[in-house]
Amino acid sequence: MADERLALAYGRGSPCCELALQLFAIMPISNQLKAVNSASPGPKSRMLIERWGKLHAARSALGFAAVLIFLWYPCAESNGRLWAQSRRSAQPRPLARHACLVI
Fold this sequence. Notes:
Blueprint (H helix, E strand, L loop, with lengths): L1 H34 L7 H46 L15
């Protein structure tokens, strides 16, 4: 139960983390890149582009993790209820009746 609450809290908090990353880390680098003269880019431009790419990869990973958690949470919840029902009754219910994503 505590793991599910933690996962749900992370899934809900991840978009806030993505927004903070965008506003405080990615946007200043984007502004610096916009100010660079495209006719004569230098090594600083390359460093900024590489850093910008790594930060965008981190933001994408946060979003992907949130999606996986939101897909996992209903499965964990329904499997927990199924486990509790099967322990109480002599005839466990089949898994096919539950709408759960099988990973």
